[in-house]
Amino acid sequence: MAGYVTPPPASRENTSASIERLAGAVSAHYRPILFALTVSLIVFKAPRLLVHPRFWADESFYVVYALKHSVIQSLLWSRQSIGYYLLTANLPAVLSALVAKKVGLEYAPFVTTYFSFLIQIIPFAILIWGKSHLFRNRFLVAMACLLMLVPPTNFGEIWFTSIHTKNWTGLAALIILFEDMSGWSNRKRWSFRCVVLFCGMSGPYAAVLAPIFVLSYFVHRERERLIQAGILAVCCLIDVALFIFELHAGGAGPRTKVFTWDTAVVNVFYYQVIWAFLGEHSLGLCKRLGLLSALQKSLDVPRSGSVVMPALFCLYVVSVFFGTFWTKKKRLSDQTLLVATFLLLAAFTARTALNGIPHNRYASLPGLSILLFLLSASYQHPRIWVRALAGLLITCALCFGVVDYRKFFERLKPFEPVWSGEVQKWRTNAAYAPAITPPGWPPLDWKPDLDKRK
Question: What pTM value is reported for the model?
Answer without folding.
Answer: 0.90
